[in-house]
Amino acid sequence: MEYCVATFHSVHEALHFEQVLKKAGLQLQLIPVPREISSSCGIAARFAPEARPDFEAAIAQHGLEVDEIHVLQEKPRKKKSLFSLLD
Amino acid sequence: MKKSTILLAGGVIGLLAAALVKFGNPVNMGICVACFYRDIAGALGLHRAEAVQYIRPEIIGFILGAFLIAYANKEFKATGGSSPLIRFVLGFFVMIGALVFLGCPLRMILRLANGDLNALIGLFGYIFGIWVGIQFLKNGFTLGRSYKQAKANGYIMPLIALALLIFLVIKPAFIYFSEGGPGSMHAPLALSLIAGLTVGAIVQRTRICTVGGFRDVMLIGDYHLLTGLIGIFLFALVGNLVLNTAAFKIGFVEQPIAHNDFIWNFLGMTLAGLGSVLLGGCPLRQTILAAEGNTDSAVTVLGLITGAAFAHNFGTAASPAGVPVNGQIAVAIGLVVVLGIAGLIVARKADTKQKEGAVLGQ
Questions:
Q1: What ipTM score was computed for the predicted complex, to two decimals?
Q2: Does B219 touch chain A (CB under 8 A)?
Q3: In-domain check, residue B262
Q4: Is residue B361 assigned to a domain?
Q5: Least confident range of A31-40, B183-192, B216-225
Q6: What is the CATH number of the domain that holds A49?
Q7: Domain tally for chain B?
Q8: What pLDDT score was predicted for residue A78?
Q9: Which residue has the higher pLDDT, A51 or B351?
Q10: Where are the beta strands (DSSP E) in chain B?
Q11: Three-state DSSP class for B227?
């Protein structure tokens, strides 16, 4: 499953992004920056790819500062547990 | 990354710390980023506290390990320009706070894993400092963005590490080595270096950070990095129980290289936590970022080293005897300066926003 991740130049911009866009009625979640994007340890915002146009419009409208928007692939969770190894 | 992976990654750090004590490092000081920079500052003659002078190979290892693995994965990037001088000052005072508590946040976890309950007071102070810092982040605190720089900027930190390694091996007359005290106690060079390289590589890959762990929980309810810290604690605890049984002692009194002044343990770590969360990473993490080419973090590391030199020259560092008055004053000044810097930035941000709003007619 694909999802979008917006990255920011500072933690404050991520918090500001969440505050403004949640008020605008958009669905998003703050997450640690995914390791595959960056080795930095900041905070990013995750949202659905279908909502990307709405996000881009809102970013422009509110003059929000975003570094980049990435499209990432959710890795399917391997259902491997200690018990399945015993099977 | 799975929960178990980060737990084990932290676990390796915890076990290595216990092993370094077994092989010669001072008790509860298998790894201490603040103490080790302090020892390096002493070895270079930046302070003359005779008991704490040694070029700690672990630090060299952190830098070179993180540099090599970042380089191999094409993550080495020279960046900078995000308020370097403010970062220097924050790094300086993080060190002042840490040396009043007697240890960086990583040593705080390691002290706790060996039964030193004073570290619990330090932990409360650290979390409180992070909480205060988060309030500033929420209200607009930022050190500004960084920019790409010429590659040469990024090579300076690894080259400094290499130069320190050469000094350590050839021992020139101008480098000071303690003959007694904690500075004289160390694991064999090769072991310390290999442990340092391993920790550097692990932290670069996993982004384990003592401030990030608590910040992510408080700010976005994410427990990933905190799991790494729990890994460090649990495995260091087991490592100490197995390898350093004689030194394991639960309590507040007569803990190795520690004092039991509650107020200053708390406030020292409040200053360290506040400074670190504003910097976006603890001293360990700053070291790793500096190795990846982040020159803002490299400036922060220079601030840490300078802070350590001043702490001993001005007599602000604590000792098992307690916290000197100079140390108490230094922590108070540090809190005022750091809160002042954060307050000024937040006030200016609010001011700009208001003006922008007026221009837009909002």
A1: 0.84
A2: yes
A3: yes
A4: no
A5: A31-40
A6: 3.30.70
A7: 1
A8: 55
A9: A51
A10: 79-80, 147-148
A11: helix
What 3-state class would DSSP assign to B264? helix
Torsion of CA B278, B280, B285, B289, to 10 degrees: -120
What is this structure's pTM? 0.94
pLDDT digits (tens, 9 = 90+) for B104-128: 999 999 999 999 999 999 999 999 9
Distance CA B192, CA B179 (A): 19
Q: Which two tokens stand for residue A43?
A: 């905070």
Which residues span the domain enclosing A59? 2-86
Report chain A residues whose CB lies below 8 A from the CB of B281: 41
Q: Are B75 and A39 within 8 A, CB to CB?
A: yes
Residue A59, classified by CB atoms within 10 Å of its CB into exposed (0-12), middle (13-18) or buried (19+), is: middle
Cβ-contact B114, B234 below 8 angstroms: no
**Residue whose C-alpha is closest to residue B14's, from B189, B240, B282, B200:** B240
Pair B77, B292: CB distance under 8 Å: yes
**d(C-alpha A14, C-alpha A20), whole Å:** 10
Closest CA to B184 of B322, B360, B39: B39
B207–chain A Cβ distance below 8 A for any pair: yes
B218 touches chain A (CB under 8 A): no
For residue B356, tell me if it sits in a domain. no
B137 at interface of A, judged by CB pairs closer than 8 A: yes
Q: How far apart are CA B116 and CA B108, in angstroms?
A: 9
d(CA B193, CA B304): 21
Q: Where are the beta strands (DSSP E) in B13-146?
A: 79-80
